[in-house]
Amino acid sequence: MPFGVSVAEVLDRAGAKDPAAVQVGGASGEMIGRTDFQRRVCFEDLSTAGAITTFSSRRNVLEIVAYYMDFFIDESCGYCTPCRVGNVFMKKALEKIMRGLGEPSDLDYLSELGKTIIATSRCGLGHTSPNPILSTMKHFPLVYSALLKERSGGLEAGFDIQGALDEARTIAKRRSLIYDATYGSDE
Amino acid sequence: MKHRFDIVVDGETVAARAGQTIMDACDDAGVYIPRLCDVEGLVPQGSCRVCTVKANEHPVAACTQPAEARMKVENDTLEIKNYRRDLVRMLFHEGNHLCPICEASGRCELQAMAYRLGISQATKYPYLQPVRPVDASHPDIALDNNRCILCGRYIRASRDVDGKNVFEYVGRGIHKRIGVNAKNLAATDASIDDYAMSLEVCPVGCIIRKREGYFAAVGERQFDRRPIGTDIVAPRRRGRSRPRGERAKDAEDSEQSCAKNV
Ligand code: SF4
Ligand code: SF4
Ligand code: FES
Fold it and tell me: Domain count of chain A?
């Protein structure tokens, strides 16, 4: 296929059924949604050395992103600080959001951390590794915001008190009288 | 006569010589660029990234990037400062840093850098809380890798100055750490008199010189009175007597040799 072809044409030629998300450019590329399928595959727009991956509407975008982040954490050689440590922090924040413990400020956290990793990493891996998260935050904002909760009080928003107590509960072999009034009642 | 030219750092003209890195030229001119993995006397390796500056609008590591004529360098800007803060925070959160009970407190470059960059509050990152074994086998030296920031300074000191190769990086990614060239430190030919074990090489409290802890009283420790970097900024007024060498070539070589380990 020639450069300049639109994503929609590629999908059509490939016979993609129900495409909902398309990753152009391998793991570090850009993931776009249906509204962007008219964009073109070329250096000026969506650049790729050839890899285009499509995902149907039955797939969870965040699970795909988590998989890509694991790939980068695995591939990081560990030489420089931002890529070695930063990618692990990106993934942890993503996991927090996926568990339903995220809050709106986590999005700023992810963009700032991603920006630092991209700017300060030593090689191309770190220069692109935050892309799966950053590009899905841009093109699939609703997938993220649907999971974020504004917490009242402001303090310790998103703090998982039950998760934090778990280890102590195991050691003490009993529950907390203050925090566990309803804990486990749905089991 | 070496080719001389000017670079512009935050609007200030800085003289440079061919073969110098941005960091070399700035040090000579008394312009401080924060750094952790780089230290005078060792080949720069560009791994901590704390020395990140923007050169002609592109972020680069000042300790390995050769200076070029008319280069426009941004060093002390809010954007760069934020990058550096993030990097220093990452290093704190990657290891276990309980400064109040650490021997290096007060002379530790990571701690001093945090103060210099204005980090004094708990940060937003999660703690990784590693549990790495402490190697106290050697009669005079202990290694606490839980405080290691992977700067590689004692690797290079042992290899290039002591000629011993006691240390090397092992593992990759977030599991990367420093290993010794034998079963443990006692089984290597490491000695307390090695340059690698001197106080100026390990920037943190990873190498511990036994029976020497807390040698300076609180208030009289290295960074208690003067923030880190003061020794570089000060000579500007006195005229610097010790110009730094031409390390850009060294940096190139080291980047290549490091690439092999990647
Ligand atoms: S950015 Fe490159 S050099 Fe730095 S840790 Fe990642 S893979 Fe290694
Ligand atoms: S090595 Fe430095 S930063 Fe870490 S605990 Fe010791 S004094 Fe604090
Ligand atoms: S001082 Fe330049 S990368 Fe560490």
Answer: 3
Atom of ligand 3 nearest to the CA of B46: 3
Together in a domain, A127 and A86: yes
User: Do A147 and A90 share a structural domain?
Assistant: yes
The Å distance, Cα B152 to ligand 3 centre, comes to 11
Q: Chain A residues with CB inside 8 Å of B59's CB?
A: 119-120
Q: Across the interface, do A77 and B176 touch by the CB < 8 Å criterion?
A: yes
- Rounded to the nearest whole angstrom, what is the distance from the C-alpha of residue A111 to the centroid of ligand 3? 24
Its pTM stands at 0.89
Contact between B207 and B154 under an 8 Å Cβ cutoff? The reply is: yes
Nearby residues of B38 by Cβ (< 8 Å), 6 or more positions away: B23, B44, B45, B46, B48, B51, B63
Paired strand residues for A22:
A32, A54
CB B45 within 8 A of CB B37: yes
Phi/psi for A177 (5° steps) reads: -65, -30
Of B59, B128, B174, the CB nearest to A120: B59
Q: Which amino acid is at A120?
A: T
- What residues of chain B, 180 to 209, have a C-beta less than 8 Å from chain A? none
Chain B residues close to A89, C-beta within 8 Å: 90, 93, 125-126
| pLDDT tens column, B242-253 | 445 555 655 555
- Count of structural domains within chain B: 1
Per residue in A113-166, pLDDT (tens digit) is 999 999 999 999 999 999 999 999 999 999 999 999 887 766 555 677 777 888
User: What is the CATH number for A126?
Assistant: 1.20.1440.230
Domain that holds residue B34: 1-76
Beta strands in chain B (DSSP E): 4-9, 12-17, 52-55, 58-61, 72-74, 134-135, 141-144, 167-170, 177-180, 207-209
Same-domain check for residues A35 and A112 = no
The pair phi, psi for residue B240, each rounded to 5°, is: -75, 135
Give the structural domain span for A182: 157-187
Nearest to B9 by CA among B251, B186, B248, B233: B233
- Cβ(B102) – ligand 2 distance below 6 Å: yes
Are B34 and B116 in contact by the 8 Å Cβ rule? The answer is yes
Helix (H) or strand (E) holding A10: helix A7-14
Structural Rg of chain B based on CA atoms: 18
> Has residue B97 been placed in a domain?
no
CATH of the domain at B66: 3.10.20.740
Residue B60: which residues within 8 A CB-CB, separation 6 or more? Answer: B22, B52, B53, B54
